[in-house]
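User: I'm new to structure prediction. If I give you an amino acid sequence, what do you actually give back? Let's try with this one:
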Amino acid sequence: MPKEELFDRTEVLDRAIDLFQRKGYNGTSIGDLEEATKLKRSSIYNSFDSNQNMFFEVMKAYSKRYGVLLSKAIQEAKDVPEAILNIFEVHIDVMTKDKTHSGCLFVNSKGSLKYIFFSQKMSFAVFLREAKKVFSNFFLT
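Assistant: Good question. You get back a string of structure tokens that encode the predicted 3D arrangement of the chain. For your 141 residues, that looks like this:
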């Protein structure tokens, strides 16, 4: 039976997002994850099983974080031009708040996706289909 997590998972994933965004999947060691998340190696493995699974959880948390912002930006628009403007404003806002200038985690991690298991790639593909659906529903109706 797994031990109870005695940490804020959202906070840990946020710290890991920042780390993977700066260093990428291939450049991030377990020691880097320990330092960034303030967790011991055993807690990381007990909670996430592996660097790979933690990376996948980070990708899901990142997509949720920015998916909410983009969905809201689209839903608040009165028409397609305003939706496009809102999307650009979200991206500009996110990028100007990013003091590390590390860019989009998805774009930065594209080369690392080959290291993710097939089932995780399929979950990632589902997220991309859902994002496409949100855009299509608004822009094509």
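You can read the tokens as a compact description of the fold. Here is one thing that stands out. The chain is about 70% helix and 0% strand.
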